[in-house]
Amino acid sequence: MSKRKNENLIQQIKAGDEKAVKEIYIRYKIPCIGWIIKYSGYDKEEATTIFLESVVVLYENIVSGKLVNFSSTIKTYLIGIAKNKVSERKRLSNKIDYQSDWFLFADLVDTNDIEKLQEKEILYQKIERSLKELGKKCRQLLEAFYFRQFSIKEIVKQFEYNNDNSAKTAKYKCLKQLRGKM
Fold this sequence. Notes:
The protein is elongated and about 65 Å long. It has 9 helices and no strands. With 182 residues, it is mainly alpha-helical. 76% of the residues lie in helices and 0% in strands. It folds into 2 domains: 3-127, no CATH class; 134-182.
């Protein structure tokens, strides 16, 4: 969709035109739900719910004036909102799911450039394969630190290291091994 069409839809929404919201819903439903399913692992029903919530947030941001400078496309903006919704749901459910959590790894996804998402997906697949190739202890340590967000003190206790420095060194060595396998 052209930048001009995006701007027209935004202006129509500001003016209270419900047809513009419906057009956004119809135009972006399939690509956004597809993205959500692919990157979150949620089923179609859950992905549809997230998409609907994203459209509502987009609408509210436009109407409230929060969305002033619109530099991306509506699709990119919706996917960015969906990414945040997925992250929020994952945090709340505290799930670890390799397929769906890779897009959160090190916060590498740039939602302002959809073309980069394909490159990032390849990177995530490499990370996933490399992580599986690591030894059990390294894999568990990295999962604890990056996915479960354990502190170094919690890692010391969980993995029975002598002190914080030992845990930090082990984490560093595991990351080095992970990078070497990529």
